[in-house]
Amino acid sequence: GFCRVLRLLRDYDWINEPLIINFNHELTNEQIFEMQTQFKADRSNLPPLCLMPSVAFHD
């Protein structure tokens, strides 16, 4: 499992896609779409590696 996480971190398209972590499937498809849209709009102001946990979206 740990090696798969390392591979994900190495191979993920960090420039074009946020890594949205949907704990307990709390986010709806609409919320995920909104997060992706916001990420693309703000991409130039965000750090190179961007994790978006569902907890941050609800706060």
From TrEMBL:
<protein>
    <recommendedName>
        <fullName>Nucleolar protein 6</fullName>
    </recommendedName>
</protein>
<keyword id="KW-0539">Nucleus</keyword>
<dbReference type="InterPro" id="IPR005554">
    <property type="entry name" value="NOL6/Upt22"/>
</dbReference>
<dbReference type="Pfam" id="PF17406">
    <property type="entry name" value="Nrap_D5"/>
</dbReference>
<dbReference type="GO" id="GO:0032545">
    <property type="term" value="C:CURI complex"/>
</dbReference>
<dbReference type="GO" id="GO:0006364">
    <property type="term" value="P:rRNA processing"/>
</dbReference>
<comment type="similarity">
    <text>Belongs to the NRAP family.</text>
</comment>
<keyword id="KW-0694">RNA-binding</keyword>
<feature type="domain" description="Nrap protein">
    <location>
        <begin position="1"/>
        <end position="47"/>
    </location>
</feature>
<dbReference type="GO" id="GO:0034456">
    <property type="term" value="C:UTP-C complex"/>
</dbReference>
<dbReference type="InterPro" id="IPR035370">
    <property type="entry name" value="Nrap_D5"/>
</dbReference>
<dbReference type="GO" id="GO:0006409">
    <property type="term" value="P:tRNA export from nucleus"/>
</dbReference>
<dbReference type="GO" id="GO:0003723">
    <property type="term" value="F:RNA binding"/>
</dbReference>
<dbReference type="GO" id="GO:0032040">
    <property type="term" value="C:small-subunit processome"/>
</dbReference>
